[in-house]
Every structure is written in C-alpha cells, then in structure tokens.
Design a protein that fits this description.
about 325 residues; alpha+beta; single chain; Cytochrome Bc1 Complex, Chain A, domain 1; globular; 5 strands; 13 helices; 5-stranded mixed β-sheet; 2 domains
C-alpha cells in the first residue's frame, strides 16, 4: 500500500511518484541493508512494548500451523535472506494495475482522477467502474478445531499483561457487523465501554483495557486486553468473564441496543472527517468487496443488527472451549 497527502495541485506529482515507485524501483543493495536493519530494530523494540508483543505472540499461537501465525514484520532469519531480486519479483506479481485499487479523496472530479490515473498507470488501468472483489475462499473458522490455550510467560514486566480471545469472523461473514458492535460495547474506545467502566472506573484495577476485532479475508481475531498489577490478575479475569458471559445469556433491551448503535455510528462518522483515514478505508473496501460502501449503507448495516445476533456471536466468540489466554508478567 502506498498513500500520500498533498495539495490538490500536486496530485499529479504524487501519482507520478507512486507510479515510479511501483514500476521502476531499483532497490540498491546498500539501501536494502539499511532498511532491513531498521525493521530488525523495530522487531527488537517490541520487547520493550509488551502490550504490542503480546498481540503478535497470541496470534502466533492462535493460528499456529498457518501463514497467519507469521508476524507482520517477519522473522529475523528470513528477513536477512531477502535480496533486491525478491523485492522486484514481489512488485511484478502484486502491483499490477488491473488488480490494484486507487482512491482519491479531495476537491477533484472523478473524471480528472481517472485521467491522472491512466496517465501514470497506463490507459485502461483504472476506470470509474469498480473492480471485482478479491477472490477468497471463505472458510468457517468457528467450526475448525479449537485453538484453546492458557499460557503464562515470565517476561520481567512491571505490570501483568493479559490477552484473551479467539478466532473470529472474516470480512465476508454475515456476523462481522454484529461482532463489531459487540466488541465496541465491551471495550471500545469510549469511556462508557463496559470493561472500562468496571475494571478502571469502578474498581481501579487497570489503566488500560480494550476489546478489539480484526477481520481478515476468511478469518479474524477478537480479543480483550488489559494490564494490571500481578495481585489483581485473577480479579480482572473474573470480572472480564462476568461481562462476556452476560452478553451470552441476557439479551440487550431495545434502548441498550439503540444506544450502542448510535454510539458506533457516531464514532464511524467522526473517523470519516479524517480524509486520510477515509481514503485508506475506501481502498481497503474496493479490494475486499469490489465497491465502496456509502455512509448510509454502513449505517443500515449497523441498524439491522438484532439483539439475538449479539447473543449468537457472543456465545460463539466467548465459548470457553475454544478461547485462548496469554499472560505476561
């Protein structure tokens, strides 16, 4: 993915530069070595950030035996083997105009954007007609063998870090939006998220607690993270379990569900005020679904979620027989 934020009159220059990067990069060996060393340093820096490291370690265990278990930054030994030939081959195989998506957000007409795109990426490479979605094989991760584990590792950290979760729905699953809503209620960014209200505001047990959901093409990850003092770990896990269990057994009232939907829609609307975020989101949507969902379409998807769907996804995702937990101390 390449992206740039420029003045309107410099859009052509930005696209020309992107085109040059995609089609004419040379990867000098000395520059390749420098960038590789930067990435190796970044990998090592994760050891100083247990909150980041625990997510990578968790997914390695959750998706063990699959490509999903490989860290995004790579494995040091494999990184050292990469040459400029590998880089050029990757560009030739992946960055093909007919399979790429180009999104532009700004005060520019679609016709002008297409004209510039075709100038720098080839005639017919892009058009106003949306490309088809990426070809995927939609699996059913929740019906696959459980990846249950409960592991505690000594890392010498000041706080005790805990991450619990499971494999979740992919981008094309009908339960994706209900799970987004559920996770936002449990531990989203708002101060009124259930776990924030309980673990932090009521009992003062944690400084950070969050629930997150990352959907991929044919699977996903849903998890809850918190950092606490070691002697509070059991209490935090107990309270977290109480919250997740409640969503599996007690249906939301109409008022609760409506408020949760309104809050999620509000968060989504605020995010769209950031043009860079909007541009990246549009590109991801084009590649994943073959279209850009309008603001109203996204609102409709959220509005259609029912209390029954919330209970259904809660029971599947927080089923103790298939959930994993990783603790650093």
């Amino acid at each position: 993915m390449l992206h740039a934020t420029v003045l309107r009159e410099d859009l052509g220059k930005a696209l020309e530069l992107m085109s040059d990067l995609v089609f004419h990069s040379v990867f000098p060996q000395n520059e390749l070595i420098k960038e590789r060393d930067v990435i190796l340093d970044e990998i090592m820096s994760y050891k100083d950030s247990p909150m980041d490291l625990i997510y990578d370690s968790f997914e390695e265990k959750l998706f063990a035996g699959t490509p999903m278990a490989t860290p995004i930054l790579g494995i040091p030994g494999e990184l050292r083997k990469i040459t400029f030939q590998h880089m050029k081959q990757y560009l030739r195989e992946r960055f093909i105009p007919q399979t790429m998506a180009l999104t532009v957000v700004g005060n520019i007409t679609p016709a002008r954007a297409v004209l510039l795109a075709e100038k720098y990426f080839g005639s017919g490479a892009f058009s106003e007609k949306n490309p088809g979605p990426a070809t995927v094989t939609v699996s059913a991760p929740l019906s696959q063998p459980a990846s249950r584990f409960d592991i505690t590792e000594k890392r010498g950290t000041y706080q005790t870090h805990c991450l619990t979760g499971s494999a979740a729905y992919g981008l094309h699953d009908k339960n994706r939006v209900p799970l987004v809503l559920l996770m936002n209620m449990i531990g989203g960014p708002a101060s009124n998220a259930r776990l924030n209200m309980l673990l932090r505001e009521k009992y003062g047990l944690v400084y950070t607690v969050e629930a997150s959901y990352a959907p991929y093409m044919d699977t996903g990850f849903a998890g809850i993270y918190f950092g606490t003092d070691g002697h509070n770990l059991s209490r935090c896990r107990e309270l977290t379990e109480k919250v997740t269990t409640q969503y599996t057994k007690v249906p939301l009232t109409t008022l609760q569900l409506d408020r949760a939907k309104k809050q999620l829609i509000g968060q989504m609307s605020i995010a769209e005020d950031n043009h860079e975020v909007q541009c990246l989101s549009m590109g991801k949507s084009l590649l994943s679904f073959g279209k850009v969902f309008s603001h109203q379409e996204m609102i409709s998807q959220i509005a259609s979620v029912t209390s029954g769907q919330i209970m259904e996804v809660a029971r599947e995702i927080w089923d103790t027989s298939r959930r994993g937990t990783l603790v650093y101390y």
